Amino acid sequence: MRRQFITIKDIARELGISVSTVSRALRDAYDVNRETREKVLAKAAELHYKPNFNAIGLVQSNTHNIGVVMPGITNYYFSTVFTGIEEVAYENGYNLILFLTNDSPEREQRLIQDLSLSSLDGLLVSLTSPEDRHYGQVLENGIPVVFFDRVGGDVRTSKVMQDDYNGAFEATQHLIDSGYRHIAHIGGPAGLAFSRQRRQGYADALEKNGLALREEWVVHSGFSQECGQQDVEQLWKLPVKPDAIFAVNDRKAIGAMLALKARGVQIGPEVGVVGFTNDPVSGIISPSLTTIAEPAFEIGKISCELLLKHIARKHFEPKAVTLPGKLIIRESSRKHP
């Protein structure tokens, strides 16, 4: 037996008012008085009315679907961002469609080329590719785009990110204040904007303290734990080795710690390590990892809120929002226990 769905006609019949009045009340139209609107909302709740977004979309030319393009969902940072996005989307009656690029620029560009834009009202994007020009075509087709975390510089739209530069500066300054003088940086892909910002924060902290930046101590690669291990293997082939490592994220920092442990290096007293994310595992491993905590949940929420504003208002002025991180000091950066 098919389930019978409640419609606005049912609400109108129950209240003895017109269908158009019910429709305007549910849309919070200006020409419906407060008392009528409250009665309509109460009756809608009593009858368990749910709006038919497919039918609404045919009339209003929207789908109530938002696409989310991100490198992955299995790590703490992106799963937390997605939770923030989902909270705002759910509160506003939007569905999320997730597209994963697995940190592949080619996969990301192919995904966008093949995307069915007619099924989406907007896109939330964390870039894998250093280029963001392919999203210009999406905007030209009338689909709003908001970048988060890994943002581009060519497409003019809203962006939400953490303060990569100052977080990296603070992380490096902490290592210097802790007594380390030969600090390496294992970064993400060199072409990404946030990789450049974190490298610049690291470089400027060294310069401020009169320490030389040695190019051989700056390694750019991927974001995985395995990349962190490989970066340390590369650094430890050098004739002069660093006494501290600032990693672009916690996964790489943990990979670096594993590689150092395998070599019998004491983490903290011999080589300090600082990450960037505050993944829950950073407080569990031994020694625990000093890191920069990122406001992942807030980034997700604000990104989705901005996208909904772009969807609602055709000429909404793009905004750039930068949220601060926080230094969390643990055992991995204690030179003198």
Could you please describe the fold and organization of this structure?
The protein is α/β, with parallel strands linked by helices and 337 residues long. The protein has 3 domains: 43 residues, 434 Repressor (Amino-terminal Domain), CATH 1.10.260.40; 127 residues, Response regulator (Rossmann fold, 3-Layer(aba) Sandwich), CATH 3.40.50; 138 residues, Response regulator (Rossmann fold). Helices cover 42% and strands 15% of the residues. The strands form 3 sheets. Strands 2-1-3-4-5-11 form a 6-stranded parallel sheet, sandwiched between helices. α1 crosses α2, α1 crosses α3 and α8 runs parallel beside α9. It starts with 7 loop residues before the first helix and ends in a 9-residue tail after the last strand. About 2% of the residues have low confidence.
